[in-house]
Amino acid sequence: MPNERLRDALLRNGITPEQVAEATEVDPKTVERWITKARTPYRKHRHAVAAMVRESETYLWPDAVGPERSAEVSGSEIIKVYPHRHAVPRELWNQLLDRATSEVEILVYVGMFLTDDRNVLRKLTRKANDGARVRLLFGDPTSAAIARRSTEENIGKSTVSAKIRHTLAFFKLVSGVDGIEIRCHGTTLYNSIYRYDDDMIVNPHVYGFQAPHAPALHLRRLSAGDLFETYSESFEAVWDVAGPPKW
User: Fold this and answer.
1) Under a CB-based contact definition with an 8 Å cutoff, are residues 40 and 3 in contact?
2) Are 131 and 177 in contact (CB under 8 A)?
3) Parallel, antiparallel, or unpaired: how do β-strands 199-204 and 180-185 relate?
4) Rounded distance, CA 221 to CA 139, Å?
5) Fold type of domain 4-64
6) Rounded Cα distance, 173 and 176, in Å
């Protein structure tokens, strides 16, 4: 069975098997076998290929890293734990966005604090114009999940919906920019996710608390780790069931 993840990653990045062979100093036929026959490369080659395509080793070869090793590496993906999201320094948010060159992904219900930075629209536009993929996921203000979250936070049934509409109105200004996609979802939101290339802020949600008062984790992706990849796959799952906003 072919390794479709590896094949897709190479195609997305415009990398040929010959280029991989040259970078890893192996025969091109060996690279073809990694793709067509799902052969598993040696560890040093996995690291090199994962870096070339900007994917994790565990994503490209899920069975190559043992569970104990994966758990050990995943612990190292945690850069810092903040007791509350509002404790994450504004400077860090700015640095992560400014440094991002290929991926900006945001999964929230509201994310109204993002609108505090009037330069964020200009920054996202510049990122997209420079080739980055920007994907923004907000809550569907008409969904049952939003009404339930608003009630659980003890702020009234329609308050979260009103906040979402405010945020959507703000980000609508960049909705027509090539490279920027905006969708709305009605899923149960267990974590808000803010990804900037290989850095991520994860905001786990706590029943009865608004998101700014819940903890936040700063993660940095490691090739053989599972933690960053777990949240990244969660983002993809929500993205796949989300739809365009009803402006």
Assistant:
1) no
2) no
3) unpaired
4) 26
5) 434 Repressor (Amino-terminal Domain) (1.10.260)
6) 7
Q: What is the pLDDT along the chain (247 residues), one digit of tens a residue?
A: 889 999 988 998 899 999 999 999 999 899 999 999 889 998 889 989 988 988 888 788 887 766 666 556 666 899 999 999 999 999 999 999 999 999 999 999 999 999 998 899 999 999 999 999 999 999 999 999 999 998 888 788 889 999 999 999 999 999 999 999 999 999 999 999 999 999 999 999 998 888 999 999 999 988 767 889 899 999 999 999 999 998 7
Q: Classify strands 103-107 and 133-139 as parallel, antiparallel or unpaired.
A: parallel
Structure tokens at 233: 């796959």
From CA 31, how far away is CA 19, in angstroms rounded?
10
d(CA 160, CA 145): 10
Instruction: Give the start-to-end residue ranges of the domains of the chain.
Output: 4-64, 75-241
The topology (CATH level 3) of 75-241 is Endonuclease; Chain A (3.30.870)
Look at the chain and count its residues: 247
Please answer whether residues 104 and 195 qualify as being in contact, where contact means their C-beta atoms are separated by less than 8 angstroms: yes
CA distances from 172 to 22, 183, 244 (A): 45, 11, 11
